[in-house]
Amino acid sequence: MKSIRWIAAVVLAVAASLSGAAPASADAARIKDIASLQSGRDNQLIGYGLVVGLQGSGDSLRSSPFTDQSMRAMLQNLGISTQGGQSNAKNIAAVMVTANLPPFASPGSRLDVNVSSLGDATSLRGGTLVMTSLSGADGQIYAVAQGAVIVSGFSAQGEAATLNEGVTTAGRVPNGAIIERELPSRFKDSVNLVLQLRNPDFSTAVRMADAVNGFAGRRYGGPIAEARDSQEVIIQKPKVADLTRLMAEIENLVVETDTPAKVVINERTGTIVIGADVRVSRVAVSYGTLTVQVTETPQIIQPEPFSRGVTAVQPETDIMAMKEGGPVAILDGPDLRTLVAGLNNIGVKPDGIIAILQGIKSAGALQAELVLQ
């Protein structure tokens, strides 16, 4: 019962925080918080590199031939001959390097990179990423990464036990990449602004366009925004407006948002999140659980003295079944608080609430989308 009350308190707290976000309206938010600029998106970068300086936790060169080839190619580029026998050192590892190039990034600025082992290395702790070029989807090099790898996980191993905490084969290089090339397109070269809703909704898109047009009517004397669909709102740039200043003024406009009713359930963790607009039609619910307990108590039987018998084990199994059935409760959820109170009155655990919500949805009484994770 305590876990049910705790989940109900969390659900009500989330609903209260959502309902009291802005003073202008119950569900009002700034445009910058609910939409993003299409030309202001991130771009993914990827590269292949080597991490050196590992304490015997790197790739086995025989098992990872690409690591050996990469090491020889790197040494040859540095003017060092690699002719001769094969190296057995395990202080080097082949890695994949990834990063997100932020919008409007300029050459010379830095960004974080992620490093992930590609071979059979056991840990990247203490290693250093050597110069690695990062390319975009167009094949062009946009950044170069290098620096010490920070690994949060650790591993300790003895003769009879092993302790692992986190992941030791992946890490980060904070500010490890320097941007060498800027993106081809520039913000002020655009003729219009395209705003994309993070949660697509026709009502929110229309309200956003109306808010922008109301501002533009007072500032520029006419409408400039149009809702193309549930996700995109197109804003035409007025001739006398500066695009950067226009975006700064528009992104602070307050819009009343609207979202569809959803119930999100994570069966692995027992988490239940109920949206503020979820409604439940009048329905009767009864929940019962069947518990089967199996107990093994083997008995040791000793032979009689001088009988030349042997000690034997006689198995003994005790099976007990318990069935707990709750009363039939009537749920009627015209609002979120009433729905949570009705679920608490049934007195079941989180897994029981998940089963009840799934049953209510199958009965057609849950007026919301049920999302299972």
From TrEMBL:
The keyword Signal applies. It comes from the Bacteria. It is found in: Bacterial flagellum basal body. Its main location: other. It holds the Pfam family FlgI. Keywords: Bacterial flagellum, Cell projection, Cilium, Flagellum, Periplasm, Signal. Residues 1-21 form the signal peptide. Belongs to the FlgI family. Assembles around the rod to form the L-ring and probably protects the motor/basal body from shearing forces during rotation. PANTHER family: FLAGELLAR P-RING PERIPLASMIC PROTEIN FLGI, FLAGELLAR P-RING PROTEIN. The basal body constitutes a major portion of the flagellar organelle and consists of four rings (L,P,S, and M) mounted on a central rod. This is Flagellar P-ring protein. It comes from Pseudorhizobium endolithicum.
